[in-house]
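Translate sequence into structure tokens.
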Amino acid sequence: MGTAVENFDAKKFVENLREHGSQVRCDDTQEFFRKMELPKFYDEEKFKRSYPLALKVFLAMPTVAVFSYAFPNDWFSGFFLVLS
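Result follows.
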């Protein structure tokens, strides 16, 4: 008897997902999703304060990737140009 990872059968999983996946709702009509709560460490004020910065950084990443290919020796300064 092995662990769950050792006993995992990807083919059976995909077959089950294809057959029954569309029949299971993933919204608040299911008890599991109605009972979901925010973690204890969640702080609304910190989340709202950090969201604009995270959005700016995440949106800057593709631009940094372009700069890093266009200017391979100067990618780090391109990152700060995007953030400023």
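Note: The mean pLDDT is 77.
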